[in-house]
# Entry
Amino acid sequence: MSFWDAMAREPSLMQTFYGAMSGDSKLVARVLVSDCCKELFRGVGSLVDVGGGTGTMAAAIARAYPDINCTVFELPQVVPDSQDQEAFIGLPNLQFLGGNMFQENIPHGDALLLKVRKFHPLVISKFNHLRYVLISST
Ligand SMILES: C[S@@+](CC[C@H](N)C(=O)[O-])C[C@H]1O[C@@H](n2cnc3c(N)ncnc32)[C@H](O)[C@@H]1O
# Structure
């Protein structure tokens, strides 16, 4: 059983983990959507946050750039609670898609966002053909 599957069996652990991830993303998102990073988003019409957790980062981008269509691609067990968050209602350019990045095709996007500590070779091979990869690492 994977770490993620094991965690899915412990709702309180899930809440703590994804809450912590979201808190970190709030900080990083403040920089990413500030004027200093505007250039990164030039020409980007669609963005996929791969393993985007509860959507904090994608939502910040969707709010700052209403013309960018943002998708959070996450494990199916994380999506239902995430997409129902009240803060995301009224963000027409934000959607969630459940899937496993190692088993399924990552949806197409002009830009992919992936927050990891180190790259898994499988992930790199999937990203090779893409135009942009925005990386944020804690
Ligand atoms: C380090 S957390 C980062 C979460 C989010 N990007 C953030 O910054 O808050 C890694 C994320 O990848 C997701 N994840 C792990 N394995 C995955 C897979 N095979 N396919 C899709 N998402 C996956 C986890 O559910 C988790 O939300």
The chain has five helices and five strands.
